UniProtKB/TrEMBL annotation:
Segments of skewed composition (Low complexity): 819-828
Main location: membrane
Name of this chain's protein: ATP-binding cassette sub-family B member 6
Localization of this protein: Cell membrane; Early endosome membrane; Endoplasmic reticulum membrane; Endosome membrane
Annotated membrane topology: Multi-pass membrane protein
Disordered, as annotated region: 819-848
Sequence similarity: Belongs to the ABC transporter superfamily. ABCB family. Heavy Metal importer (TC 3.A.1.210) subfamily.
Biased composition (Polar residues): 839-848
Transmembrane segments: 27-47, 68-89, 95-116, 136-157, 172-192, 244-266, 286-304, 375-398, 404-424, 495-513, 525-546
Catalysed reaction, written as an equation: heme b(in) + ATP + H2O = heme b(out) + ADP + phosphate + H(+); uroporphyrin III(in) + ATP + H2O = uroporphyrin III(out) + ADP + phosphate + H(+); pheophorbide a(in) + ATP + H2O = pheophorbide a(out) + ADP + phosphate + H(+); uroporphyrin I(in) + ATP + H2O = uroporphyrin I(out) + ADP + phosphate + H(+)
Keyword check for Kinase: no
ABC transporter domain: residues covered: 582-816
Length: 848
């Protein structure tokens, strides 16, 4: 056990502060902990009393989760451990002096208080506090601790300090000082941001939350999404990326990944040996070595350089081979991402698709897919190798040269990476806003082109062009801010790199002139450091690309996280279709909470029957069709087919038995044959033509110049309304479903076309269970049962004659439609009479 010696070392007194060109360690390590602990005791006690008496415990939902807060706690604990280690090392190597014991105890107590205060401020808050962030006391403590460590530079030339690194004691003291220096500095700079505390005053958050609850909104927590870091939810994003990083379904691709990683390790080793062999060539040439020795060294150097390439593996043999082998892996990743996202979008509910903006979704998919490729490539082959090169270089410089070169490299790299991350995070908001306006511009363009006819009808070309130009101008303004901030970042990086290169080169040149190093050592340092700066110079680009990729992926991740509204039950089986009996039992449904569309709807459709749904617009007729097809799930009651609840069977098996002819038929931008074949993609050409004959459109198709290969245009705009409806009927006939749903399939057509299509529909619906939503009552006279829907309820039900005899809603609707039809007929007669009167004088004059 080491006994306590005098307070200071032999020959040193507290009265002599400045000795041999520096402060005495005895004075320094007495003054600093005494001042810091006094601050902690006096102001810290006041700080604790105020928070205990006038503070209140914060609700957990207002306290942001932060990894930086965890880092603050770890650094504070590290400084406590450092104080204990420093005391033990000094006692073991130099003896236990009084100032050493004093420093260890006071410093440990001071940082324990800092930990406690940090935890207190995260748990409690002063109610009257109108600012955010840490208290002045804690910030002052961190600032003084960091400033105290900088005072060590005053004693740069003093042999009593550790700067010479001449023995084990000085080397250990130097390492512990670096721990104190960077830990206290990080605590101060992180503390300015106060990551573990709310971003705004606590009372303001409470008041906003209360107003949001009153207004039915969501609490404003955590700030607006537009200002959050691109690294937010990093673990969640990486979890989504993991399946694409490792090709689990292919052993061949897995071997390629392993081989690429092995080549990556070989590149790291080559990067170390290239400057070493270059140094050996210089030393051998200046030292007069034999030709055979020099030639072997030169050949090895050229071989290594060939493998490495013109930079840090940028275009060498190994790098090119790795890039070539990685192509298949990258293609796998891109394919899997796109296919899974496309399948996910098709699995989303009708509600989501009705509210989407196609241009924005497509743009998000394009950017998100390319960003996944960039992320994997840059993280695996750029970021990790660059960090590995930095660590290897620091270790090599410390072991081969001395600690000063390692320190210069470390400080330069740390400053470079820190400022790169800080400035790039600041630039994030510009990039995110730029993406938003880019999406907006593309969405406006796609929306305008899809509605080309409407634009022409209202002569709005100049208006659409103006809107598009305005969107581009907003995008370009943010693009300018993004590029301007990029120029600032590049200049900052160049300044740091230049300063580090200057300091290291001067120090190395000094040792060469002193005879401690050879000329080859200077060449080695210059070659290695420039080789290291090449990927480091690109590190900012790598980080920006990765961050931009995370930003670009945000919209894609939002698409991935969209929940399916209609899901198959865990134990769902296939629909066992027998006869086609449909039952609605006490069905309730609403699209939005508080506004019911269907209220206690019950009816039965017997096998082979036709049931018609009539009523005013918005009464819920089409909703019944959508619920039966299971675009939505009911919120009350149930729907059965042959006694089976459709919510308990698989959606694809349910829809396989149902055919739908919608009111607005939309065709794919393909030929007529493929549009009809879409009803059953495995159908032959003969079956397609038979379906067209049954829909009474075969002859019409043959009259086209290109027949069945005629292109229908986008959404089928090259065909008339009647032709599109007949294609839809042919498609449904080809599907051969047992249940037919007709959603006002002829409401938008003229009378003659409607009659022709009705004849085609009659063939389709023969001996099939059919539900018809009709606007023109004349088309459903022959229905087995007619349901009159009003305000989401069945107001009347029965046959055509039965409902007319009741004299209710159906009878009123029938009379109004008959009167309107008679009025139209009378108008047509008057027009014909006027035309004949105009023709009679011409005929009589011609007779004379």
């Amino acid at each position: 056990m080491v006994g306590l010696q005098s307070y200071c070392e032999a020959g040193v007194s507290m009265h002599r502060v400045w000795v041999e060109g520096g402060l005495t360690p005895c004075f320094f390590f007495t003054l600093i902990p005494s001042v810091l602990l006094s601050l902690a005791l006096v102001l810290g006690a006041l700080h604790g009393v105020c928070y205990g008496r006038y503070g209140t415990t914060m609700e957990p939902k207002y306290v942001p989760r932060s990894r930086l807060y965890g880092l603050q706690m770890v650094l504070s604990a590290l400084l406590v451990v450092q104080a204990v280690v420093w005391t033990a090392v000094k006692a073991a190597l130099d003896g236990l002096y009084g100032y050493v014991l004093l420093y260890g105890c006071l410093t440990a107590l001071g940082w324990i208080w800092a930990c406690a205060s940090l935890r207190l401020e995260r748990r409690r808050v002063l109610v009257r506090e109108r600012t955010r962030g840490h208290s002045v006391v804690l910030l002052l403590y961190w600032a003084l601790a960091f400033a105290a460590e900088n005072l060590a530079f005053v004693s740069w030339i003093s042999p009593q300090w550790w700067w010479g690194l001449e023995n084990t004691e000085q080397q250990v003291a130097f390492v512990l000082w670096m721990v104190r220096y960077f830990s206290s500095g990080l605590l101060f700079f992180i503390g300015l941001k106060a990551p573990g505390l709310p971003r705004r005053p606590y009372m303001l958050l409470i008041n906003e939350d209360e107003r949001d609850v009153e207004n039915g909104g969501q609490p404003l927590l955590g700030g607006a999404p537009q200002t959050q870091s691109a690294w937010r939810d990093f673990r969640k994003k990486v979890r989504l990326l993991v399946p694409y990083m490792w090709p689990s379904g292919s052993v061949f691709l897995q071997l390629l990944v392993i081989l690429c990683l092995c080549l990556l390790g070989v590149e790291r080793a080559i990067n170390v040996f290239v400057p070493i062999y270059y140094k050996n060539i210089v030393n051998q040439l200046t030292g007069g070595s034999a030709w055979k020795t020099v030639s072997v060294t030169v050949c090895v150097y050229v071989l290594l350089k060939f493998l490495q390439g013109g930079g840090a593996g940028s275009s060498g043999f190994i790098s090119n081979m790795r890039s070539f082998l990685w192509i298949r892996v990258q293609q796998y990743t891109s394919r899997v991402v796109q296919v899974r996202l496309f399948a996910h979008l098709h699995a989303l509910s009708l509600r989501w698709h009705l509210g989407r903006r196609t241009g924005e979704v497509i743009r998000s998919i394009d950017r998100g897919t390319s960003s996944v490729d960039s992320l994997l490539s840059y993280i695996v082959f750029s970021i990790f190798p660059t960090i590995a090169d930095i660590v290897i270089a620091i270790i090599y410089f410390i072991s081969y040269f001395n600690a000063w070169f390692g320190l210069i490299t470390f400080v330069c790299m740390a400053l470079y990476l820190t400022l790169t991350i800080i400035i790039t995070e600041w630039r994030t908001k510009y990039r995110r806003d730029m993406n938003t306006h880019d999406n907006n511009a593309k969405a406006k363009a796609v929306d305008s082109l899809l509605n080309f006819e409407t634009v022409k009808y209202y002569n709005a070309e100049s208006y659409e062009v103006g809107r598009f130009e305005e969107a581009i101008q907003k995008y370009q303004l943010l693009e300018w801010k993004t590029n301007a901030s990029l120029a600032l970042l590049n200049q900052t990086q160049n300044l740091i790199i230049g300063s580090g290169l200057l300091a290291g080169s001067l120090l190395c040149a000094y040792f060469v002139t002193e005879g401690k190093f050879e000329v080859g050592d200077y060449v080695l340092f210059g070659t290695y450091i420039l080789q290291l700066y090449t990927p480091l110079n690109w590190f900012g680009t790598y980080y920006r690309v990765i961050q931009r990729s995370f930003i670009d992926m945000e919209n894609m991740f939002q698409l991935f996280t969209e929940e399916q509204e209609v899901k198959d039950d865990v134990n769902a089986g296939n629909l066992n279709y027998r006869q086609g009996r449909i039952e609605f039992e006490n069905v309730f449904f609403s699209y939005t909470e508080g506004k019911e569309i269907l209220k206690d709807v019950s009816f039965t459709v017997l096998p082979g029957q036709t049931v018609a749904l009539v009523g005013q617009s918005g009464s819920g007729k089409s909703t019944i069709i959508r619920l039966l097809f299971r675009f939505y799930d009911v919120q009350g009651g149930c729907i059965r087919i042959d006694g089976q609840d459709i919510a308990k069977v698989k959606q694809d098996s349910l829809r396989a038995h149902i055919g739908v002819v919608p009111q607005d038929t939309v065709l794919f931008n393909d030929n007529i044959r493929e549009n009809v074949r879409y009803g059953r993609v495995s159908a032959t050409d003969e079956e397609v033509e038979e379906a067209a004959m049954a829909a009474d459109i075969h002859e019409r198709i043959l009259s086209f110049p290109e027949g069945y290969t005629t292109q229908v245009g986008e959404r089928g705009l090259k065909l008339s309304g009647g032709e599109k409806q007949r294609v839809a009927i042919a498609r449904t006939i080809l599907k051969a479903p047992q249940i037919i749903l007709l959603d006002e399939a002829t409401s938008a057509l003229d009378t003659q076309t409607e009659r022709n299509i009705q004849a085609s529909l009659a063939k389709v619906c023969a001996n099939r269970t059919t539900i018809v939503v009709a606007h023109r009552l004349s088309t459903i006279i022959g229905a087995d049962q007619i349901l009159v829907i009003r305000d989401g309820q069945i107001a009347e039900r029965g046959g055509h004659e039965e409902l007319l005899a009741k004299g209710g809603l159906y009878s009123d609707m029938w009379l109004k439609q008959q009167q309107a039809q008679d009025s139209d007929s009378a108008s047509d007669t008057e027009v014909k009479d006027v035309k004949s009167e105009k023709l009679q004088p011409s005929a009589s004059s011609g007779g004379h």
